[in-house]
Amino acid sequence: MTAQRTKILVTGGAGYIGSHAVVELYQAGYQPIIIDNFSNSEESALAGIESILGTAVPTYRIDCADEEALRGVFAAEPNIAGVIHFAAFKAVGESVQKPLAYFQNNVGSLLTLLAMMPDFGVENLVFSSSCTVYGIPDSLPVTEATPTKPASSPYGRTKQMCEDVIHDVSAAPSNKLHTILLRYFNPIGAHESAKIGELPLGVPNNLVPFITQTAAGIREKLTIYGNDYDTPDGTNVRDYIHVVDLAKAHIVAVQRLLDRKGTETVETFNVGTGHGNSVLEVVQTFEQVSGQKLNYSIGPRRPGDVPAIYADATKAEQVLGFKTETSLADSLASSWKWQVALKK
């Protein structure tokens, strides 16, 4: 262990993607500092992180939108070199039902963070964005230059607004902020140790945990929302990326910021596999790798869902040197391994 690890503040660090990023950060030689209010995560994630790393990670149980509490963290942790901002609500369907909560939390927490960082000389930000900013694209795959269109959900709009805020702040004459926007596609899977993974509170909003919970007998059946889309088999098509691959993209982004390799104050990268899989393909692949037969039925379309979207991942590979490594089958196998471990 190095004498002085570079500190990286990770908001939402006990969440699904955040917890995996914390592990990868530490293993890459950084000192992650977790902020999480546990509104959408479980304390058990901290135990999982500690078990993998063999050490506890400093954790502050606060709301990132709480200015006084956030200031206290920055004051208690001098010399933070950068921030990875994960903290956000992220369920498309829920955002349609609770739009105000999504704007307050997702946009509000970013505003509080951006106002705080200059006071403590923190100039580097990796922002957790989303492919939802593209809306319903005219053509596939989407590149970083694909025009953003009206989002299909309040969740997507919050990500568009956050990106706009970051661009506007960065354009200010006094700005010293350097940001990498990572537009995620659909993270799935779990750490190979099965000690951390996706742990939805209540009924899952995402496909894969609903699949694994159905296979485990926790849910009676899986509903596939719509089979009449203009896709090869009529079901939604998404770009499914293993969560550890996604976490590793953040490490590359942090290092790029610290090394000041970017020529612009804001850089944007798609983080996906570069190809799409339909919901039915995911279901069938899961059945193959797990040996479990899923009980599923076709239901009506769900408000806010885009028919199909997947990444052109060329820029991330050429500029960041980042490329995904894990197949859909291996990703789903890790999800099932995690689900089985949860039952023990």
TrEMBL record:
Pathway field: Carbohydrate metabolism; galactose metabolism
Domain NAD(P)-binding: 9-330
Domain of life: Bacteria
Cofactor(s) needed by this chain: NAD(+)
One Pfam match: GDP_Man_Dehyd
Any one GO MF annotation of this record: UDP-glucose 4-epimerase activity
Matches recorded under CDD domains: UDP_G4E_1_SDR_e
EC number: 5.1.3.2
UniProt enzyme class: isomerase
Keywords: Carbohydrate metabolism, Isomerase, NAD
Residue stretches spanning the membrane: none
Catalysed reactions, as listed in the record: UDP-alpha-D-glucose = UDP-alpha-D-galactose
Complex formation: Homodimer.
Family that this chain belongs to: Belongs to the NAD(P)-dependent epimerase/dehydratase family.
Name of the molecule in the record: UDP-glucose 4-epimerase
